[in-house]
Sequence to fold (494 residues):
Amino acid sequence: MIQQTRQVQKPLTTAHLAQTMALLALTADELRQQIDSELAANPALELVEERRCPTCHRILTDPGKCPICSIPGNPANDEPVVFLSPREEFIPRKDYVDTDMEDEPFAPAVEELPTYVLRQIAPDLRAEERGLAAFMLTHLDEDGLLTTSLIEVSRYTHFPLSVVEKIQRVIQMADPVGVGSASTTEALLIQLQALRETGEVPDLAEELIKDGLNDLSHHQYAELAHRYDVPQKKIIAAARFISENLNPFPARSHWGDTRQPGAQTTQVYHQPDILIGFLNEDPEKPLVVEIIMPMSGTLQVNPLFKQAIRQADEDTKLDLRKDLEKASLFVKCLQQRNHTMERLLTRVVSLQREYIVRGDKYLKPVTRAQLSKELEVHESTISRAVANKAVQLPNRRIVPLASFFDRSLNVRSVLKEIIEKEPKAYSDSELVDMLTDKGFEEARRTVAKYRQIEGILPAHLRKVTVKGKCDRFLAGSRVRLKVKRNQVSKRSLP
Fold:
């Protein structure tokens, strides 16, 4: 079991929570940039340049992991050793300047959706309402939908439900319209309402969204026409309008000047945020998990700043106090972020040790919801902690931290293994049966989806009539056949 000191924590203030959530979502490199930015902007912050362990605060004389934190209390225990690691090899050197490199123009900054929405609505809200809006915006999922109920928001923030509902409506009418809705249906209805204010919409659109979306998605136009007693062409026209003008996932639509979230790109990880290895390089010993903390010193509030406030004149005291409060808040939020990462990785690595050590097909089905209950945090907290983070495994392979929660990874691994060894091209139905025999209950269409994800062609394109064994067949490639020396042939796929 995880040995943890149980702390009684007071509910975080809105500002504390919002900043902690923002820091939690940052990668190690992004966190370094944020720390540098705060140090440059706030004189109340200082970085003590002695190299200390961020976990136990002992002075470190050698680069790499802390010699104290990396020693488990019980070496025979399989629980991982998790600690913050100021590994300098992953910190860009500030004393290096490439004089041959020309200055490049800065790329436009990319705003996160909560920040983008809050910037729009803040001028029309009172100070306390801005805090409530910020809280709600930190609980959006990747689709722009609200992940917590309005009642839960009301209970946590101590705002009346009527005020929470009012702020939600303000958020929903911001760009992208429908953001902050509780469901895809609600998002569509909000967008429909906004369109009504600027133009005409089909009469049936609202009814179809409320009651007929399932049939609409399956193109059951004749059944819908009969149900509403209208010509089929009216159903088709309304369906086309919904498809062309509305988006059930607001965050996936185009929003902002420099962001197009709908454009999916493959993320390439050049350096890890978390390192996993074996204690003393011994595979029989516990795993050691290093969370990269990208600073070589200790970040703290300048102890001389309070004295400076006392000595300052009344005109400057207010600004100095604001700097002090911001510095103190940033340090606390950074500590909270690191504490959450340690707790999360301790549990995740413990659950997924077999996957880490033995490979993809040993991945256990672990969900973010499951961990949120175990760690007693909101599911959105887990999502932010996992987002965009990369992990280096003991075999030096770098994978997304999100892969620890990919319930399809082990199935896809077994699927690839079956197809690599197939004596003939198995149909998707046959693959379903084989996966069932191995303990994986998956539908045929799910298997087809996994096959497509892995770039494997369907059975009719993998069929090859030739003596000998077939090589692997991947989409978009030529089929290469291994045959005997006197039987050489090639066949191109369309």
